[in-house]
Each structure stands twice: as structure tokens, then as C-alpha cells.
């Protein structure tokens, strides 16, 4: 849950920047043709028919244009598939850095320190709540 939150924040900013750079008319939406161009630039190969089918599923208002939230939904389909292995490698490396003794786990105290680095406004009660909510289910 915590890692998903971190990744979401990074990805959201990146996607917002990409979306805005392709929304040259500043309409708040991009065309299917623009999406096709973006995917090609990312090295993703998808047929026109597949793209149209995917867009039809995601285009909630049926406008034929993708607003930012719809663009994020579409991107998630491709980002998850493309980045799963690199994400696993990054997470393993991050874990290794914090598992200083090489025990195969990090202490709750270490996790609290990591979370406090991410958001220094978190209180001890907040940290305890996050850990309890996510790890003791």
C-alpha cells in the first residue's frame, strides 16, 4: 500500500506532464491519434483496432477524446505491463539498502523512519496507524 502510494505520486506527476505536453490546444483532452503517437514513442505496438477497443472501454463520456483521468487509466494498462520487472528490481534494491543486516526484513522502526522521510508531518500515532492498517490484517 505504501509503495503503491509512492509510485502513484511519481507516476501521476509524470503522466500529468506528458498529458499537458501533448494537449497543445489546452482543451483538457487528447485525441485517439495523439494517444497512438504517444504509445509508438514509448515503443508500444498496438493495432488500430485494439487501440480503438481499449479507448472505447476507457472513454467514459464517449467524446472520442481522452481527458486526463482517462489518459491515466489507459497509461496504467501499458505501464503496469512494461514496468513490472523494473519495478520489482527497484523495490528489491531499495529493500536491500534498508535491510542493513541482511536479515530479509526491515524493522518497524526502520519503516517508520522511511515513512517520516517521505512525509515529515506524520506523527508517531499516524505512523503506528499506517503500520497497523497495512501489516496486521
Automatic annotation (TrEMBL):
Alphabetized UniProt keyword annotations: Calcium, Repeat
GO molecular function: calcium ion binding
Stored InterPro entries: CALM/Myosin/TropC-like, EF-hand-dom_pair, EF_Hand_1_Ca_BS, EF_hand_dom
GO CC list: myosin II complex
Pfam families xrefs: EF-hand_6 (PF13405), EF-hand_7 (PF13499)
Record keyword Repeat present: yes
Domain EF-hand per the UniProt entry, residue ranges: 10-45, 46-81, 86-121
Function text: Troponin is the central regulatory protein of striated muscle contraction. Tn consists of three components: Tn-I which is the inhibitor of actomyosin ATPase, Tn-T which contains the binding site for tropomyosin and Tn-C. The binding of calcium to Tn-C abolishes the inhibitory action of Tn on actin filaments.
Protein name (record): Troponin C, isoform 1
